[in-house]
Amino acid sequence: MTTRVKHNGLIDCDVHPVLSDFNELVPYLDESIQQYMNIGKFAKGALAKQNSGSFKFPSSAYANPLPVPLRADAFPPNGDIPGSDPAFLASDLLDRCQTDFAILNIGHGTMSAFHNVEVAAKYTSAANDWLYGKWVKSDPRYRMTMEITPLDPAQAVQEIERIGKRPEIVGINMHCVNIPLGKRHYWPIYEIAEAYDLPIVLHPDTEGTGEYAASFGVGPASTYMEWHTSLGLIGQRNVISLVCEGVFERFPNLKVNFIEYGFSWIAPTMWRMDKNWKALRHEVPWVKMLPSEYIRRNIRFGTQPIEEPARPKDLVELIQMIGAEHMLLFCSDYPHWDGDELERAFLHFPGELRHKVFYENPLASFRIQP
Amino acid sequence: MSAQEKHRLVVCSAEELREGDRRLIELDGVEIGLLRAEGTCYAFRNSCPHQGVPMLYGSVVGTMLPSQPQEYVYGLHNEIIRCPLHGWEFSLKTGKAMFSPAVSIKMYEVKEEGDEVVLYLDRQPQSITRKQFACVL
Q1: Which pLDDT value is given to residue A2?
Q2: Residues of A in contact with B86 (CB under 8 A)
Q3: End-to-end CA distance of chain B
Q4: pLDDT reported for residue A37
Q5: Residue pairs spanning A and B at CB distance below 8 A
């Protein structure tokens, strides 16, 4: 398959490399955690039996029911999992789409909502080093977001201090837990993120995957369909929290990029927040502008999975209606099943808007040095 | 136009507008609410610019001043009237909404002169109706 869309620059803000096997982490991971996870020299034999397989990676309760839950056209030639081969991904996606930069967000799962924060923190550091060593160094077009442990801001700050100045790291992939994003709990992370000029990236993963997972507003979803469609609610709740708690007054230059939560819901969210603020300003007196002004200034949204109204132009009109032309970031979500193809997903976007979404907005929203 | 050039209209006696009292008057079809808070008399158009409900039912309150995140600073004690429907806050001193100086209720010049509460109007009204008004606030 070839892509024929002509563009003047493309930054793909959501590409997912995955571990083919947890043992890939062994060179980067402290022995104590290898033992905890039953990998490396602890993978076989007595120890695994002795601890009864006590470690289980936090996987989502909502499994994609499709026969192949990833792009079935993206298996590398060696038959491994899609997203596991840096060279194949570079040719299959970047060469085909003439991508200038691909921002790698770890796709094999996170431990952000895991109950043992120390294990989660060491795993996260190892995963960052694996992504940097195996992937980012393999192709000059690769950039990455670094993961942190949102349950432990002090540790997260240490991790950002450890690697956050590397030029290949363009954002902080925080993941959400059951603490709303605006709470002071996170402010040490926001402080260093702003100082390092790194955006906070929020990407679904923890939802439903651990003891500290965010809830879905009402209660558990019954199906993957419910789960996937409800992700936008979590995005919405966190946007509301960030604005109302005064994060963007305290950190005016902080960017928060919501990737894969959708974006059409931001219109009614802005309208509702502006209306409520006029009545309830005294409750959040530190919010000094219309909530929608903070949202337009500090928050960005990934395009994928793009909304598909029956009349495609409605989406463009909605973007124009809410003044979101500068807020959208192109994401392919390769190699996930619900990714967007460059050629078709933006067919109805005017050329100028497309260029903003494909290149200008990502360039302004991540710490990318071309 | 100075106060001297304006039309002088006695609304009521000072005794009829004591601390916390409210009065309603209609001039040429436009309702004007009057109240006294912290000793000062205020007069304003009796209609919220948002959805038009009568402002005279609004609570007179102080409010939280613009502040640093996660900090509450109380001020403007009894200088704010809050719309009885959605709670929009307007300064009784200026008429401006707390959330934006571009939104306001019209304030009228009102003075306490001896035993009289006096409105100063841009022109002489053709019809004047003093209306009954009562609210629990």
Answers
A1: 61
A2: 278-279
A3: 35
A4: 87
A5: 44
Q: Which of A79, A66, A80, A59 is nearest to A17 (CA)?
A: A80
Q: How many CA atoms lie within 13 A of A57 on its CB side?
A: 14
Give the C-alpha distances (Å, rounded to integers) separating A259 from A82, A235, A308, A362, B55: 20, 9, 17, 12, 45
CA distance linking residue B93 with residue B106, whole number of Å: 11
B87 contacts in A (CB within 8 Å)? Answer: 279-280
Interface predicted TM-score (ipTM) of this complex, two decimals: 0.89
Comparing CA positions, the residue from A200, A246, A249, A209 lying closest to residue A231 is A209
Burial class (CB within 10 angstroms; exposed 0-12, middle 13-18, buried 19+) of A205: buried
DSSP assignment of A186-215 equals GHHHHHHHHHHT--EEE-SSSTTSSTTPPP
CA separation for the pair B60, A31 (Å, rounded)? 66
pTM for the complete prediction? 0.94
Nearest by Cα to A104 from A69, A130, A73: A130
Q: CA triplet B83, B87, B88: central angle to 5 degrees?
A: 75
Of chain A, the percentage scoring pLDDT greater than 90 comes to 81
Encode pLDDT of A227-264 as tens digits.
999 999 999 999 999 999 999 999 999 999 999 999 99
Residue whose C-alpha is closest to residue A150's, from A28, A238, A64 = A238
- Nearest-by-CA chain A residue for B103: A278
**Least trusted range by pLDDT, from A52-61, A352-361, B10-19, B76-85:** A52-61
DSSP code string of A67-95: SSSB-TT---TT---TT--HHHHIIIIII
Q: Which residues of A touch B77 (CB under 8 A)?
A: none
Q: Which of these, A21, A33, A331, A65, lies nearest to A204 by C-alpha position?
A: A331
| Per-residue pLDDT, A56 | 83
Tokens of A203: 């990407």
Q: Which two tokens stand for residue B45?
A: 């158009």
Query: Residue A285: which of B66, B87, B88 has the nearest Cβ?
Result: B66
Which structure tokens are listed for A22? 């947890």
Query: What's B88's DSSP letter?
Result: -
Instruction: Spell out the residues 6+ positions from residue A267 whose beta carbon is closer than 8 angstroms to its own.
Output: A318, A321, A322
Using pLDDT thresholds of 50, 70 and 90, give the confidence band for residue A326: very high
In this structure, what DSSP letter does residue A28 have? G
| Per-residue model confidence as pLDDT tens digits over B93-115 | 999 999 999 999 999 999 999 99
Do residue A286 and residue B69 have CB atoms under 8 angstroms apart?
Answer: yes
Tokens 């005064």 label which residue?
A: A246
